[in-house]
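ok trying again, last paste got cut off:
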Amino acid sequence: MKMLSVSEVNAHIKEIMDNDLLLLNLWVKGEISNCKQAGSGHLYFTLKDEQCIIRSVMFRSRAKSLSFRPENGLSVRVRGYVTVYERDGIYQLYVEEMEPDGTGSLYQAFELLKKKLQAEGLFDSEKKKRLPLLPGRIGIVTSPTGAVIRDMIDIIGRRWPGMCIVFAPASVQGDTAGFEIARSIELLNTIDSIDVVIIGRGGGSIEELWAFNTEIVARSIFNSRIPVVSAVGHETDFTIADFVADVRAATPSAAAELVVPVKQEMLKLTRNLKDRLFQGTQAHLNRCMQRLEACLDRPVIRRPVHELCTSKEQQLDFISQKLLQSTDRLLEQNRNRLAVQVNRLETLSPLATLARGYSICSRADSHQIIRSAEETAEGEPVHVDLFKGRLLCLVKDTIPE
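nice, full thing came through this time. structure:
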């Protein structure tokens, strides 16, 4: 039996496949998954159906002519050929043409859930919570076995040594991953001292990231009282969790940098603020001292008795003098008015009439003034008031006018 090297085996398989007419030019229908574009412009992805996958590549010269952007979950039809990549010993589909063929099942489910949650307001920006400037404790939800947790712990430890991290492990891939992630978020919400939560995992295909596209995870993020940072996959990967979260980070490492400031920078900022506060306080005190000195230089402060009492005494003397003058004027006016009234009374007084020789006759019993002789009767007693004294008389006779 001939002994073959690995290269000879791969070359033989490649020769067989290259001579297969079916594999030289064929159309394949499938759903794009794990799609990545290299810096060279080549497009690497896998095509899958319900049971199997096939690795595929589309070189830049072919990819640049596409009229659409290939994305994970997109159902496509491709034309190309299948052969072996000898170095790795794997066969690949080399795509020369690609056209859309509707959307895949996972992508369709993604869009339906996205529209539903968006209509309910789970993506609204006004409902997003702000991240704390400096958290006291950080909660992390991710796989305990992946590199993500180690990277975040290392980054947080470098930026702020001694920062407290509460780790809630959860599967990030598989049938139970969504439930575990939601349960870990709810668990962290029962701890009062946690200020921010990071949920995340590394990059992967749409199937590998699907736990973060589930409704249970979306609602647990939305109902969290603690701000949640979503850090799922690479920068180009978007999940439902990214839309619901309060903040999206491009990668788990970026999330760790986002939630924790650099301690030295914060100390420097604190010192600067301290210096500015001292300078501001000193400037304010200087302004107050200047105002105080200006007040002390005023005459009312330097000679308070002279400025206050003397001026007030002068005002009191002036007011007293005016009051006395006003009183004298008022008394004189009242004397004059009284004299006028007295003269008027004297002119109108019946005593003046009596002094001129007239008298007043009245009935003795009622003191009613008698104006006519006919008002009396013979023998009736009457009073006659003179200027000096009164006469009590009896009517002897009446003489009409």
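cool. Residues 265-309 form one domain. The longest strand covers residues 90-103.
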